[in-house]
Every structure is written in C-alpha cells, then in structure tokens.
Amino acid sequence: MIDWIIFLPACFALNLAFGPNNLLALMHGARAGVVFSQCAALGRLMVFVPMITVSALGLGVVLTTSAVVFSFVKVIGAAYLIWLGLSLWRSSASIELGVADGAKLNLLRAFKTEAVVALSNPKAILIFAAFFPQFVALDAYWQSYAMLGAAFIGMEAIAICVYALIGRFASKFSAGKLPLMQRASGLTMALFGLLLLVSPSPTRSG
C-alpha cells in the first residue's frame, strides 16, 4: 500500500523545487501569461510520462548506477542549460528594443525547450528511479507505479501554474524591468548548467 501521507508532501516539495523547468515556467508566465506557460510546459509533462515508464521497467537503474552513462547524460544536459542561459541573456536585448514582446513568443519553440530541458536533466531520472521505488507496493507494482506517476504529473501541473502566476504578477508590477528579469533568468539557467556539470554522479549503494 502506498504511503500517501508521506509521498504527497515530499513529492510536491520536489515539484516546487526551483530548477531549470520551473524557471522556464516563470519566464514564460512573465512574458506571455499563465495559459501560454502551461501550454508550453505540456512538453515537460509529455517527456516525464515515458521517463516514468522507463524507470518502472528498471532501465532508470542503469543510469543511476552506471557512472559513465550518467555522466554522459549529465554533460549533455549541463551544456544545453548553459547554451539556453546564454540565449536568454542575448534575447533580452530584443525585449528592451520592443522587438520581442510576450505575444511574439513562439509556443512551439517554448514547448520544445521545456521538453528538451526535462529530458536532458538527469535529476528527473533520479526522482523516478530512486524516489518512486521507496513508495511502490511490491504486491501491486505496476498499478502503484502508475498511481505514483499520475500523482507526480498532477502536482507538477500545479507547480507549473504556481510559477507561471508568480512570473505574471512579477511582470505586472515591474513591466519595465522585463529585460532585467530575462537576463537574471539566463544567468540562473547557466548557473544551473554549471552546478549540474560539477554535481557528483550517484554511486551504487551497498
């Protein structure tokens, strides 16, 4: 039986944790609104579903126990985050000139960015491969894993809305500082990439 009393608050804390994808939700909310941010974040949710399935099949264990494979995924993810951060920083100039307002954000591009960031960050793999199994009921493995996955996706959608709302409200109160927010987001995204690059790989326990 799943211990929902422990899982739900612990999992929601992970959903709300400030990271690259939530930073994107914040930025998209600030520039184009909550609905746009949530639509773009569907790219993240659509990636998480097969990642959860892969972890349920046990393939996630390969990534968490193989230093070589994990390091490869980590380096690719870190490089992408750094590149994305630099791109955000550079694009702030176009906002300042009034060339790229929120209405001109490309939804398909934002959707793809959310998906790639989710896929290239091995921390999500750690959540599904190391956190979920602690709550799986062995006598109903697939059913419980599916329930945990559904709960995670639902709470992730709520977290996306929270960050999008924060971004939207922030932009309303400081509309003239949107380029500064964009630069700060770019710098933070690049910092996430650097931190991911130097973070230690998981080791096999026991």
Characterization of the model:
This protein is mainly α. The protein has one domain (22-198). 80% of the residues lie in helices and 0% in strands. Mean pLDDT is 80; it is low at 95-103.
Describe how the helices and strands are arranged.
Blueprint: H1 4-16, H2 20-32, H3 34-56, H4 59-65, H5 67-96, H6 107-120, H7 122-131, H8 141-173, H9 178-198
Helix pairs in contact: 1-8, 2-3, 2-6, 2-8, 2-9, 3-6, 3-7, 3-8, 4-5, 4-7, 5-9
Global shape: globular
Oligomer: single chain
Mean of pLDDT: 80
Rg computed from alpha carbons, rounded to a whole number of angstroms: 18 Å
Distance between the termini: 26 Å
- Spans of at least 5 consecutive residues with low confidence: 95-103
The percentage of residues in β strands lies in: under 5%
How many structural units, i.e. domains? 1
Overall number of strands = 0
Number of helices: 9
Class from secondary-structure proportions: mainly alpha
Summarize the main sheet: none
H/E element sequence: HHHHHHHHH
Question: What percent of residues adopt helix (DSSP H or I)?
Answer: over 70%
